[in-house]
Structures are given as structure tokens and as C-alpha cells.
Amino acid sequence: MNADTAAARVENATKVYGSGDTTVTALDDVTISFERGKFTAIMGPSGSGKSTLLHCVAGLDDLTGGSVFIGSVRLGDLKDKELTLLRREKVGFIFQAFNLIPTLDAAENITLPVNIAGRDADPAWFDTVVDTVGLRDRLTHRPSELSGGQQQRVAAARALVSRPEIVFADEPSGNLDSKSSAELLGFMRRAVDEFGQTIVMVTHDAHAAAFADRVVFLADGRQSGELADPTADQILEYLKSLGG
Amino acid sequence: MLKLALKGVLAHKVRLAMTAVAIVLGVAFVSGTYVFTDSITRSFEQLFRDANAGVDLVVQGVSDFGTTVPRIDEGILANVKAVPGVEVAAPSVSGSAQIVAPAPCEKGPGADPAKPCPIGGNGPPTLGFSYVPEGVGLTTFNLTEGDWPAAADDVLVNAHTAEAGHLAVGDVVDVITPAGVEPFHISGIASFGEDDSLMGATLAVFGFDTAQRIFDSEGQISSISVVLDPLLDPTVVQAQISSFLPDGVEVITGADQTENNLDEFASGIGFINTILLVIAGVAVFVGAFLIQNTFRIIVAQRTRELAMLRAIGATARQTTTMVILEALFVGVVASAIGIGVGVLIAFGLKSAFGAFGFGLPATALVIAPRTIIVGFVVGIVVTLGSTLVPARKAAQVPPIAALRDVDTPPRSLGRRIAVGVGVTGLGLLMLLVGLFVTFDNALSVVGLGALVTFVGVSLVAPLIARGFARWVGGPMARTGVAGRLAQENAMRRPRRTASTASALMIGVALVSVIAVFSASAKAGVADVFREQFSTDFQVRLTGFSDPTAAGLPPALGAALRTLPEVSVVVTDRFGDFRFAGDTEAGFLLAVDGPYDQVVHIDMVAGSPADLGPGDALVGRADSERLGIRVGDTVTIQFASLVTADLRVVGIYEDTAIGLPLVIDYTTYEQHIAFRLDRFVYVKAAAGVDLEQARVAITAVTDAYPSAAVTDTEELIGDLESQIDGLLNLLVVLLAFAIIIALLGIVNTLALSISERKREIGLLRAVGMQRRQVRRMVRWEAVLIALFGGVLGLAVGLALGIALVVAVGEGLRLTIPGGQLFTYLIAAGLGGVLAAAIPARRGAKLDILDAIAYE
Q1: Is the per-residue pLDDT at B110 higher than 60?
Q2: What confidence tier does A1 reach under pLDDT thresholds 50, 70, 90?
Q3: Smallest CA–CA separation between A55 and chain B, in Å?
Q4: CA distance B309 to B315
Q5: Are B662 and B601 in contact (CB under 8 A)?
Q6: Contact call for B769 and A60, based on CB within 8 A
Q7: Strands, E, within B580-678: which ranges?
Q8: How far apart, in whole angstroms, are the C-alpha atoms of residue B78 and residue B82?
Q9: Per-residue pLDDT tens over the stretch B5-25
């Protein structure tokens, strides 16, 4: 894998919180590439730095040392305004919760990033995305009228509708029951297979990670290993070996 | 609970600080008013005491009401002097005398620099006194330069006047007196009291004979100051003197004179006090809305915390107590600060008065215990009162709310409508009763009615807030996502939006009432003058003046009568009087000349042309009330309590003149000492071009620097700008209430933004620029402000129209559309201003903080 095929990558990423005695090193010299058109999962125990890594790659947080690239753009060089524009144009997000603006209906939430940019969504693509996530009959509902699974699917549709270079998902199924979770992850899988979308997802759930093409393991702020096209059982085995 | 309440206060420092600002401003206005008026009163009290300090008895004309003290016969002086035990009996004559500073002098922009400047006037009196050697030491005049007036053309001026006109001993100045304009020679300068600050009044002292001549008081004096042998009982001498005084003349002790002076002063200052307190009350009322809103939002945001307390065993009573204790703490601290700020305001007011030429004595500010008590009571009562509803809400939080999000169901819409409409109706009813039914304290009922109406409208407002945001926010939403979100944000908590807007509504409503009233008054004035003045020109004092205290020398009218270019010259004057048997005093109009030829009068009966000495014209309302017809005798009473029987020669429609009685100058001068004319009406002679007549008139008035010549349209213009000036002053004072309301918008937005931290974080994460976040907050503020503005205009229009209809006489209902629209735009801009800080805070939110999980 080289720089050309990576949708995003981090080089020697270090992130230190606090100062003096209270210093916490969340990322310790991490170098990872996220291949274009692939679904990558990042796993690790609490405090392993997986969420910090995601926030830094997504341009929501900055590194203490090292660099982050989205495509060929180095994020450290960007001002807040440019970073915001980059997120708007090239990045999609699915968070664990609080994904949606409660005052807007589902359709408005989906087109939010495009509308923020002052554009209208491409209607054909919008329809494709909406049908893929199965929200056709829920478009005029507000978030409070949607189930948790539906809300996350709206968030996923929003992440895709602007055709971003890369979608970051932070425990997207963390609050969902297993059925809704499988539906959401299945949809994300299809987005990769059918639309060639690049997705990076942080999770602690082996079943969720099993939907990915590649699983990267973090521990204590460092990469501790990875698996390609794993099954849930393989992942659990691997985690057990780490813990053992 | 006390500990928890204190922690609660500390945890919500910023939002409570905003609440506190509202209380601080309200309390500061109240206490500042008291400190200011107390200080003025105290210093003048001292001045009056000093002024009468050496005087045992004062002999003067009786003046039961009104402002002009009648003169007394000079012959009384000899009789008083002859009373055993009288050591000094110093006569005094007083009247109006305005010093004119020679050109070049300081004057307003646009004035002719070559013209001289009359000093003072425009409100503060221009007083003239006489000097007698035996009177020195009986007044608080301290000679600082030169000498007392000795020669017939000598004048002594007070230091303030000398300073204002850049005058020095030896200068020659013109002085405007009832006798005309004459040059005088400044013999000396004296200060009145310690620092010669008399709220802008000017003083001139003349020799005794000169004073009698120029004040048109030959053979008469205003008062006699008596000093007694200190061994004698003053009451005995007082009785002795009293025994030979004619009717209408009294002898009182120096101490009583001081009390009279103080009472008179207190009623003058009381008016200012009342106006300031009413405006302070408005500020406090608006503040109450802000406080109530803040506490409600805080309680809502702390639902989980309160529920947790309930879950671990706190009673509903305890959670209520906690909220109330917090409010109490805020109220006490804010009131204390407010009183401190009030002292600063009083200091500022004093300086401002000084800067505008109304110099006040430089005594220390008086902070009476009453001021502090009222400040605390107002601050604490308002804070606690406004917290009652939020505190009750706190009690209703169920313990289960700690575990999941429960929205306490809002009260039923029907009940809310019923209560809101009921309260609004009650308020309007009180207003109408106060306006249209005559009884004591009607004005207070009107004020209370207005307050109740405001509360009622604020109760109904949440019901229309959503619809308003939908319609008015529509175009806003089409400008982009920021506008759309702002619209939704304004709609999602209609009660909050409505409550915030209601605070602004009050200020906007009051300025709208003023706008409607002043437009109607201007239209009314224009109508009356256009319809009734058949004169070509009027001559009158420039600027604002009290027609019973200032005016034109009669010599001016006399000079105009000699002009060949004019055919008719009529002068008029105001005077105090009452119909015999009445308790309320009013003004009468005295006219000299064929009044009906210069003013069109609608007569019910009789003719104004018949008016001669001993005759009267009576207004229709009073003639009907008193059962008077033409040919009857009407008995009237003057301020000296002397009565006069006048023959009624005509009855006129009240709107024609606006005063209930018209008499001629002969009758007037028999009973009233005032000698200055209000208007001189001039009609050009037949065949004389108006421009030519004006040139001739102006040539005469040029010698009278305080006189202005106008035609009717110019007069209307002048009066309109005077009305504007007065009412603009009120609007400026009401700005205080509007600033508090804008603070309310700042507060609500700040609280809403902290509530919506996650949303804003999400918006930022998916690519919203800081600029767009700011725009979103700003649009919401504009929506709230416009809502407040529209409500205010609606209520203000209703109140204004009711007020104009109730007053009726002299007004023509006029809605100043352009001005009201400007207010609405200003409200919107106020919203933009109020949004500045919350918008910045919103835009600066850290995205990671905002989207972080618990």
C-alpha cells in the first residue's frame, strides 16, 4: 500500500494530553494508512487511543507530533476555516449518539452538510442513498419520531450524501440492539462494496468489526497488530491472545 | 439546602450574573433617583434655611396657589416699621429680569453670531430683586466683586450669570424686564449661598426705586423682611402686625417661610422624582421578566440534578427552597450592588445637569436609610416574586426524571389561553376605566392596567410565537441552513422565545405609546392653530418657557402697536385662578386688544368683542357645571384668596381656547402681579405686503433678544419640535428598560447555546463554518427581537390610541407609521447587537467537547 492508494494516513502520530505529572500519552508514534475503497475497523480496549486516533484523522482534534493526511492534504497546515471546509467536502461522520439536529426532519438532516455548503443534494444520489438505508417513508419525521436504529441510518445517509472521500464512524452501533446494529453495519458494508466508499470505524464490538475488510488493533497508544478479512471468532481469538 | 443553594449559585455564576445585572440596573435606577432628588432637596433646604436665617418675620401677599406672589402696598412698610420691637424692616420687590450677554457669545448652532444672547431662561427662572442697605445680611447674597447697585442704572448679577455671559464688573449689559430692554451697568457680582448653584436660575439685583419701576410696581413691594429685638417674643409682634394688615397680606415667621419655600420646591422636584421612579419601575418590571426567564431555564437545565436530589430523598419542598434560596442570594447581592451603582447614577445625573447649565449645589450626595431599604426591598421582592413559578416547577420534577429524559407535560393550551386572555382583558379593562372614568388616582389605575396588560400578553405570547417564527422566519430560512436552523430554534421553545420577547415588548410598547401620543399632539396643535389663528404673525419667547413665570415685556406689544404696517396687535397672558367654591386651581387667559380679530373663537353665546374691565368669557364645560349664562355674574378667586365678581359676556367652546376663563388686562393687573406677555398677535394692515410687515415687526423685536417672530406655520413647526424634544427625553429614559430587555436576549441565547452545545458541535463537525454558527445565533436573536417589537407595537398602538381618545381635547389621533417602523427595525438591530456575545461563544465551542459522550 502506498500514499497514492491511501484515502487517509497518519505518520508518527503522537498525542499527549495534559502536562507535567498528569501527562497522558493517548497516541504514541502511530503510523497507519487507510486504503481507498476499503472498510477499516480500529479496535482496542478503553484508553487504547482509538477514539483519539479517529478524531485526529478526521480533523476534529490536532496532533502533538507527526502528521495526518486526507488524500494529499496535510491537516496540520490548515486553519480552522480550511479544516471546516475540508470536513464539509471530503469527510463524513457517524457518531455514537447525538448525530442529528432535533429541529430538522430526516431529509433535512441528510442533506445538512450539502446545505451548509449552500448547495442542493444531487437528487439521484440522494434517492440512491435513501433507498439503500431504507428510509424512504421516514424522510419527513423528526429525530424524536425515529427509533435509535433509524436515527443512526439517517446519520449514515448524511455521511454518504456528500460523496466524501472518507467516512469516519465512532462506535456507530454502540447504542443499538443487535438487529439494528446488523442492519446499519450491513448498509455500511454495501456502501463500500457498491459505491466504493472508504470507511474507518472505531469499535470495541468484534461482531461489528467483522464487517470490515481489515481490523487494526491499538493498545496503549500503539498499533499492536492487525487482521485482514477476519470473522468475529478470529477477532475474539486475537483479542484473547492479546489479553492472555 | 443552604449549602446546596450556595453551590448552585456558584455553579451557574455566569447566567446568574446576567440575571443579577437586570436587578442591579433596576435597583440602581430606583436608588439613583432617590439619592439624586434627596441630594438636591437637602442642598436647597440648606439654601432656604440660610436665606431666611436672620429673618424673624416676613410680611407678604397671600399666595394660596399658583406661582406668582401678589404685591402689597408700599404704605404697609411704614406701619410695620412703627411697631415697637421691629429693629429692621427691609422691603423687597422682585420680578423677572433676564440679562443679555452682548455679541459675540456662545449660542447654539445655526444662530446668528452677530446677535446677543439672553442668559438662562428656557426653563429655569430669570429672577430680579431689589436692594436696600438695611436688607444686607438678611439674604444669602455674598458680594464677591464690586459693589451693591447704587445708581439707577446699576445691576448686580450672580456669579453663575456673570460666568455664563463672560461678564465683569463695569460692563454694560441689556436687561429684559417688564419695562422693556434697557442697558445697565454691572456694579458688582455676588454669589447666592456658598457656591451659587441654583439649577440654572439667573439673579439680577437692582436699586429699590429702579426695581419698582422696571417690575411695574410703583407704590408696591413684594415683601418685607423683619428683624426683631431678640428679647421680644416674635409671636406677640406677629399678632400685632397681623392686626393692621389688610386682606390679602399676611405675616409669617422666617421659619414658616422656609417651610413654604421647601414645600414649593418639593412639589417641583417631586414631579421629576415621580417621572424617574415610574421609569425605574418600568426597568424593574422588565428586569422581572428577565429574572423569571433565567430561573426557568436554569431549573429546566437542572432537571436531572433536581430529580437526583428527589430520588435520594429530598422533598419537593426542599428543592423549591433550594431554588428560592438561590434567588434570595442573587437578590441580596444584586440589590447591594444596585444601590452602589445608583449612587454613581445620581452622581452622573448631577454632572449631566451641570453640563446642561442647570448647576446644582456641590453638596455631598445624600444616601438616606429609606433609599437603602427601598433598594433592597425592590431588588429582593422582585427577584423572589419572579422565581415563584420556576421554583414551583422545580418542585414538580419527578424523581424518575433522573433516570430518563422526561419532559414535564406543558399545561393545557386551553387553560393557558383562558388565563392569558383573562389577564389581558382585566388589564385593558383597568386601563379603560382609569382613562375614561374620572376618580382619584385614576392615573395609578391606568399604570397598573398597563402592567397587567403586559403580563396578560406575555402569557398569550407563547401561543403565537411559533406562528410568528414560521411566517417571519420564512424568508430567513430561505437564505440558507443558518436561517432555517435559527427559525427552528426560535420555534422549539415558544415559551422561552415569548418570555424573552415580552421583556422587549414592554419597552417598545411604551415608546410606541409616546410616539402615537406625540404625533397626535402635534397634529392636534397644528389643527388648532391652523383653524383658529387668523393672525398673520405671532411674537413670543424663543424656546421653552412657563407662561406664568416668563414672557415678553409689555413694552414690545406697545412698540408694535405704533407701527403703520400693522392693523391689529393683541397680547395675552396666563394667570392662576379658580372658580369660587372650587378646590382645583387652573389658568386663565387675559387678553389685551380685539382678541376675536386674531383668533377665531367658537362662541356658544355672547361675543368676545364685549369683553371689557370687570367682564369675563367662560368656557362651555364650566359654564354648564356652574349654571352660568351670559349676563350672569361669576365669582372667581385669585391666589391671594381675594375674590372678584365678573360679568359674563360670552361662553365659548372649550377647544377654542383651551383655558376655562378669559378676562381683560385691567382686571388681570388689579389682581395678579405678573407682567409679562405670552403671545403678541400681529395682523398686517390692509394693503401691506406680508414680507414688508415682517421686516417692520422684526425691526422692533430685534431690540428684544428673547423674542421670536413667526407666522402660524412656523409657530406650529416650533411647537412640534418642542413636543418632540420633551417626548424624546422620555424615550431616552426608557432606553434603560430596552437595554435590560436586550440583556434578556443575550442571557436567553447564552443559556440556549450551552443547552445546544452538542448540536453546534455536530454542525461544526459536518462542516458548518464559525461564521455560519454566528449567523444562526444572530438570526434567532433577530426573530426574538422582532417578535418583541411586533408585540410591543401592537400593545403600544392599542394603549396609545386609548390614551389619545381619552385625553381627546387638543389631540388628533395620528399613527406615525414611519416612526413605528423605525422602532421595529431598531428592535431587530438590537437583536443583532444582543447576539454578538452569544454568537461568538457559540462559534468558539470546542467541537470535541461538544460531541464528547458523558
Answers
A1: no
A2: very low
A3: 8
A4: 8
A5: no
A6: no
A7: 586-592, 603-606, 615-619, 633-637, 643-652, 661-664
A8: 6
A9: 677 667 667 667 777 888 888
The complex scores an ipTM of: 0.83
* Minimal C-alpha gap between B491 and chain A (Å): 9
Q: Do B481 and A116 touch (CB under 8 A)?
A: yes
Quick check: A3 pLDDT over 70? no
Please tell me the distance from the alpha carbon of residue B557 to that of residue B555, in angstroms, as a whole number.
5
Give pLDDT, residue B353.
73
Contacts of A101 in chain B (CB under 8 A): 485, 759, 762-763
What pLDDT is attached to residue B500? 87
For residue range B254-287, what is the model confidence (pLDDT) as tens digits? Answer: 888 888 888 888 877 777 788 888 888 888 888 8
Asked if the C-beta of A15 comes within 8 angstroms of chain B's C-beta atoms, the answer is no
Most A CBs within 10 Å, among B760, B766, B773, to test the A interface: B766
Three cell numbers, residue B94:
422682585
Per-residue DSSP letter, B34 = H
**Radius of gyration of chain B, Cα coordinates, nearest whole angstrom:** 33
Min Cα–Cα distance to chain A from B375, Å: 43
Global pTM reads: 0.79
pLDDT score of B691 more than 70: yes
CA pair distance B39, B157, nearest whole angstrom: 26
The nearest CA of chain B is from the CA of A61 a distance in Å of 7
Residues of A in contact with B483 (CB under 8 A): none
Query: Residues with Cβ < 8 Å from B251, sequence gap 6 or more?
Result: B57, B58, B59, B226, B238, B241, B242, B245
Q: Indicate the residue of A60, A92, A102 with minimum beta-carbon distance to B847.
A: A60
Q: What is the pLDDT of residues B450-471, one digit of tens each?
A: 888 888 888 888 888 888 888 8
Q: Where does the pLDDT of residue B441 fall: very low under 50, low under 70, confident under 90, or very high at 90 and above? A: confident
Residues 6+ apart with CB under 8 A from B518: B723, B724, B727, B816
Chain B hits for A84, CB-CB cut-off 8 Å, are: 764, 767-770
Give the residue on A whose Cα is nearest the Cα of B851: A98
Neighbours of B389 (CB within 10 A): 13
The residue to which cell 365678581 is assigned: B645
Q: Which H or E run includes B684?
A: strand B679-684
**Residue of chain A whose alpha carbon sits nearest to that of B768:** A116
Tell me the fold of A37-61+88-243.
Answer: Rossmann fold (3.40.50)
A88 touches chain B (CB under 8 A): yes
Backbone angles phi, psi at B646, to 5 degrees: -115, 145
